[in-house]
Amino acid sequence: MSLPVVDKQAVISAFAKAVPGYPQQAVVQRQIARQLASQAFRVGLPDRCRILEIGCGTGFLSELLRQGYPAATLVCSDLVPEMVRHCRQGMRGSAATRFVVMDGEQPAVAAGFDLVVSSLALQWFHDAAAALVRWIELLRPGGVVLFATLGADTFREWRSACHQAAVPCGVIPLPSRAQLSSTHVGLVVTEEAQRLRYPSAQQFLREIKSIGANTPAAQYRPITPSRLRRLLRDFDDSQQGLEITYHILYGYYYKPIG
User: Fold this and answer.
1) Going edge to edge, which strands form the sheet with 139-150?
2) Is residue 129 very low, low, confident or very high in pLDDT (cuts 50, 70, 90)?
3) Share of the chain above pLDDT 90, in %
């Protein structure tokens, strides 16, 4: 059995608090949802397809999927009840859309989906490889799994600063492209890097907290406030303009017919 990556109750609490400001603050998350939606549209699903979204959040990807597949049966799920509630409110009038509070690592839905899709949820799972197997089992023959998750190079600048200062880093463990590709035969993984500029390290941490993505790795022990202030000051002093890397992994799996 794999060790917990994070405390899921802490994840639920952090994202629940972030809901009011999430649609405005989650810039990278919205961009990734657009990219994932464009991939979903290129798959060429039947008009009346069945789609399961894992980790719908406030509805960035959900709304795009509904626009692109208006006749589809769409199931939007998330571990955080407040996220599901916000997503439902933003999609009122979508009669063929269901909203479910559910742990996407252990999806409690019947099989037979044409598409299982997930944007930036997989990194919070205790066992991503096992979850991917379960998602694949939910597909009908000819169905597709599409997902985006954070990769190992994410926040490399902050990780490096913590390492150089000899302090523990709370960033959750994340896979490389090669590691993720090896989790299942037939899984194709591509990658890209996005870099966001922040005015300071403190602002970077503040924005991560504002979208609920600040839950640390399970074994992390916080450093003292004074040590954190010193780390932030040293980090700012060492940068030639503060840029933070987001390493995005996109996964694609097609379930053969027959």
Assistant:
1) 97-101, 73-78, 50-54, 113-119, 139-150, 243-254, 188-197
2) very high
3) 76
Residue 29 token pair: 């998350």
Class for the domain spanning 8-154+172-195+246-254: alpha beta
The CA angle 46-101-53, to the nearest 5 degrees, is 25
As a residue count, the chain comes to: 258
Structural contact between residues 216 and 172, judged by C-beta atoms closer than 8 angstroms: yes
- In this structure, which amino acid lies at residue 163? H
Q: Would the pLDDT of 165 be above 80?
A: yes
Q: Distances in Å between the alpha carbon of 238 and those of 69, 154, 195, 250?
A: 48, 19, 17, 32
Q: What's this model's pTM, rounded to 2 decimal places?
A: 0.94
Give, as one character, the DSSP assignment of residue 59.
Answer: S
Dihedral sign, Cα of residue 128, residue 131, residue 133, residue 136: negative
Q: How far apart are CA 8 and CA 218, in angstroms?
A: 9
Contact 83, 66 (CB under 8 A): no
**Residue whose tokens read 């987001």:** 246
- For a pLDDT cut of 70, what percent of the chain falls above it? 97
d(CA 51, CA 36): 14
Q: How far apart are CA 173 and CA 48, in angstroms?
A: 38
Task: Give the E-state strand segments of 35-112 in sequence order.
Answer: 50-54, 73-78, 97-101
- CA neighbours within 13 Å on the CB side: how many for 119? 25
> Which two three-digit tokens encode residue 191?
């990658």
